[in-house]
# Entry
Amino acid sequence: MRKIKVKAYSTSANLGPGYDILALAHNAFADELVMEIDKIHAGNRIRIIGNNVPPEAKKNSAGLPLIKLFNEFDIRESVTIHITKNIPVGSGLGSSGSSAAASIAAANELFSLSLSRDEMIRFAMEGECASSGTPHADNVAASIYGYVVSVNSVNPPRAYNIKTEMDLRFMSIIPDVHIPEKTKLARSMVPFSITMESGIRNSRNLASLISGFASGKRDLIRDGMDDGIVERSRLSLFPYYTSIKANVMKKNAVGVCVSGAGPTILILYDNETDLHGIEDKIDQIMRSAGITYRRSYSTLSGGMEIE
Amino acid sequence: MRKIKVKAYSTSANLGPGYDILALAHNAFADELVMEIDKIHAGNRIRIIGNNVPPEAKKNSAGLPLIKLFNEFDIRESVTIHITKNIPVGSGLGSSGSSAAASIAAANELFSLSLSRDEMIRFAMEGECASSGTPHADNVAASIYGYVVSVNSVNPPRAYNIKTEMDLRFMSIIPDVHIPEKTKLARSMVPFSITMESGIRNSRNLASLISGFASGKRDLIRDGMDDGIVERSRLSLFPYYTSIKANVMKKNAVGVCVSGAGPTILILYDNETDLHGIEDKIDQIMRSAGITYRRSYSTLSGGMEIE
# Structure
């Protein structure tokens, strides 16, 4: 019987001023998903087997988009999905988005649907509802496209890669913190309206960040990866962030941001960065905040890998 | 006696979603400015001679930044400035910015001040006060840097070029319309606050526009050169714009925007654009609006040329 195996990487959305726009994929972690047709059970049944995932399809990031896809393409067969979850759940590293993207990519292959990447985003976005209540496209776009992506439109979804020649390297600071209904909460903290002035300031940063990726100029990324709206509105969720950011930039990181809705902090670094200085400083900050954490090192990764 | 001659090109600011951020320089028009030391009159006197320019230094875009520069560098000599104004005044093509930039560049050369481009922006911005009451950096940044520029910060001014390999071509539609105190009025129409949602939509467009320039993908520019905040708030000033925009995009232009605070409309086109179709359509639209206008064709230009 035919089995499709998909590997989908961890992702970080927002990147400072790019709320609901920018994201990137990194090889810090990767989920693996195997999908096969279930010949025994008739009638589009979706069976999900895995560690640390809700077994009910409707409540599962991999299951919900599949229900939508099965309905739209009138697929009557049943499938079994085995998920090996390696991306930490609820950490802001795109765990739910990766499962959703992997599930749609596997079905696309298994049923020869020839979906475009943007069509895959449309279905995979539904998976984000399962975990956060709101469909948002940035993490799934990064899972599907790989590298640095920008979401141009959500309805219909349209994304594209921002090409960069930079050897981007990342340190993820993953606190052992569980915030219930985190993404829903974090999204509710974003202000409904902003002043034009702060909008222009953030847009300047966004322009600088994108130009930095495209041109390979680290100073433009340093200037640009700074957010005065969304990150600021959520500071109470990540009390350690302000101090980490100030210290990390002093030690010449390329940039630092909250990864998605947090609590993970993503640090961009290169050869000019005092990496050990940063590690020591973060140890200090987190110890005095009484929060345990782990570090993960990664580089940019491509999109999903399909076997 | 030493004479410095500077040629400064016309510019278009905003480019849709890049209000107070993006601008570009084109060779549609160029002002020429000649500056020489006036040995006869002592005591930092600034004499301005030219067609269609206010002779009083304080009220003149070339004079005002020079007063600031003379004060700051304690320059005691007098100068005579001859301005040949070719950029139409009050048209949204950066006429005042070009004079200001040319004046500062000439003084930089004449008095060997070794100003950086960003320092030149700082002084030249003052010239914008003479014509609009507000210092803004976008047009002077384009005059000084040339090509496509992004303003990263206004205080202190910091700008950079967005590199593009595209063979960008422009049609300027310059209506014979005079709006008194136009820039001041147009700036007062911009809303004080915006919804986060419309901010995100505009930021998506800005991201797409910049990525389009950087990658040479015309579709990203087509998607991105669309503004739902600033252009929309000023529509009553340019009643012909909505119809021009819709028709020009239908005929496959790369993009269309209001040039700065208008009334000029800037159209980006390439080989895929139905240029004659656009010309005919605009003739029709402007005729039925009862507005005479002229067209000008140009390409991207560099920064100032100094002899």
